[in-house]
Amino acid sequence: MERKEKIEVNQKIRLLFYATPVVVLLTIFLIYWIFNVSFFSDNDSTNWGTSIIEMGIGTSITIAILIYSNNQQRRSEEQQEKITELVSNIQNIEKQHYERERKRLMVFSQRIISNLESTRQYHFALKNWLTDYLNNDTEENKQNIILSSRRNWETIEHFFIPHIKNDLGYIGELFQDPLLSKNIINQCNSYGTMLKDVQENFDWKNDTVLMKISAIDKQIDILITTIDGIKKEVMEPLEP
């Protein structure tokens, strides 16, 4: 395309310089024929014919420069349009990429929050069961706590934790906090500990139960902090 345009410009300039002598000669002839003046002047070494020739050459050069300049300006404008279009396309691609990443962050974050919230509720339920056991320390109540804890522990261990870790693999690098994903994965190892402890060799004395309730409160606080951290990530815009 550029080569074709260059050839067209060269042809215009070549045609201009071919036409210039013809136009100059015709002009001299018409002036001579109309005004009947001599081509040479005895009083002026630079006669009018020479002046016309110089004017013709100068005009041709000026027109040639204008043709070349206009072509360069048009090419510059076309290149600027192409650059603008390219920048616009890049911005659109970046915007689409941002929107996909944002959607991915929101979808998987909501799944993680849902699993963490369910884990928190299981811990809160265990706390209530143990609190109730302090006032009703029967064997039946103890067995109900053990059975319910085992069921909830299996759900956390075999469903919540694998799903949380898997979802973090899709969005962990999108978190603004670089340690959030790693901290959640490390915490996963202790999410089911509280429920598992009451099933095996647990001392059901009041002091031990109270210590366990306190530990559960701390675990609930950690879960709440983690959930809030993920919600904050969802609310904040992604960095480019």
Quick tags:
mainly alpha, 2 domains, 240 residues, 6 helices
Structure description:
The structure is a single chain. With 240 residues, this protein is mainly alpha-helical. It is 84% helix and 0% strand. It folds into 2 domains: 2-92; 100-235, no CATH class. The protein has 6 helices and no strands. The longest helix is centred in the middle third of the chain and has 88 residues, at 48-135. The protein is rod-shaped and about 140 Å long. The model has no long low-confidence stretch (mean pLDDT 79).
Spatial extent as radius of gyration: 44 Å
For the sheet with most strands, the description reads: none
Give the % helix: over 70%
Query: Number of domains in the coordinates?
Result: 2
Instruction: Name the average pLDDT.
Output: 79
Main structural class? mainly alpha
- SSE topology string: HHHHHH
Low-confidence region ranges: none
Overall morphology: rod-shaped
Explain the layout of strands and helices.
Layout lengths: L1 H34 L12 H88 L3 H33 L8 H12 L1 H5 L8 H30 L5
Helix pairs in contact: 1-2, 2-3, 2-6, 3-4
